[in-house]
Amino acid sequence: MSVPAAHASSEGEGVTVAVLDTGIRTDHPALKGRAKEGPDFLQEDDQSESWYGDHGTSMASSVLDVAPEAKVLGLRVIRDPDDPDYQTPDEVTGQGGSRDNSHGLSQAITYATDHGADVISLSLGSGSVWDTYDEEQAKAIEYALSKGVVVLAALGNEGNVERGEENQVSYPAAYPGVISVAASVPGGSRAPFSSVHSYADIAAPGVVINAADYRSSGRKPVQGTSSACALAAGVSALIVSKYPDLPPRQVAQVLEGTASHASRGHSVETGYGVINAHAALRAAAKLTPEKPVAIGKAGAGVHFGPGDDGTPQMVTYGLDPEYFAIAAGGALTGLLAILGGLWLFRSGRRLQRLGPSDGGPGGSAGYPQYGQQPVPLQQNPYQQAVPPPRNPYQQQPTSPHGQWPPQQ
């Protein structure tokens, strides 16, 4: 992501990144002095519980690893798996209920916008009760964008065909104007778990990310599109800090236009490719700030919502982007292949999701409601080596501000 080179011109000074998640532990060394917590939009008082803030703390640390001079505003909108009130998507479906307060997410987006957030990071969605369009949430996001707030969301962790995952449409990633972030492996290709959709905008590293461990003062390796989103939010903070007058559409423009395969066009797997912080900052320097453009209006962006690249909103697993390029000589064959793939996708929705009892690492995406996955027990051949486990309660040194990547 060329973060060290980017730090020569920006470290995120003066920018607030709102992390809407499971809450954050502001006393963790990776966050201390650079984070504060706002209201709990689940309307509970769980900050003293031992399980509080697992996922949110990890995501906040990843934001600050990229933008060490930024500030984080933590807002709780979802639950951690160790929360006694946590429910899996299957449990929600079986009970006909709602796992978390969807209204609370809309409120939190509006709160963040009205309380100084410049960037909103949403490492949530993936296979949850939020897999359908919600007008209130869409309006809250539109409000944030109209105020110049950059909004990013995790694409989702349901792209692994070998585990029978359903590749569901995931909100808030699918809302127009949201920068949707896929997860990549070293080398830049799609991480096996990362969902495949036409609304993928960019990708960021999503495997073996060294993030804050809420159980100790140290760190732990994590993976998922959640982590990719948090890292991309940090890069966005670098851009907004240096060029505060750029509206969200232009921030998206420089992220996409300088990503790893932007010159080759859009991919349903990784969007325009892995982001490059240094190149994005250089591209931003050449832009004249525009006025914010209302979502849905002409000129709102080349890729500012699902389906505008000509691909279906839902696709089958593992399809390479070239399958969607239908040549004149093979138009009928290509069309039948797409229709057949969609039929298979719908049929595949009947498959039971893999959970811990099925040998999976913990639900359809590890943490199925928001994108982070625990590191699998078997090493993925594309992953970096995971260091030997440390005592989780042994204090570990925290990386100096500006050091990249964060050390163990």
Any descriptors?
single chain; 408 residues; alpha/beta; Rossmann fold; 10 strands; S8 family serine peptidase; membrane; transmembrane; Peptidase_S8_subtilisin-like
Structure characterization notes:
There is one protein chain. This protein is of the alpha/beta class and 408 residues long. It has one domain (3-320, 346-374): 3-Layer(aba) Sandwich (Rossmann fold), CATH 3.40.50. It has helices at residues 3-6, 54-66, 89-95, 102-114, 135-146, 225-242, 248-257, 277-284, 331-348; strands at residues 16-21, 35-40, 71-76, 119-122, 150-154, 179-184, 202-205, 209-212, 219-224, 372-374. The strands form two sheets. Strands 2-3-1-4-5-6-7 form a seven-stranded parallel sheet, with helices on both faces. It has a three-stranded antiparallel sheet with strand order 8-9-10. Helix 5 (135-146) links the parallel strand 4 (119-122) and strand 5. Mean pLDDT is 76; it is low at 91-100 and 297-400.
Concise structural overview:
By secondary structure, this protein is of the alpha/beta class. 25% of the residues lie in helices and 12% in strands.
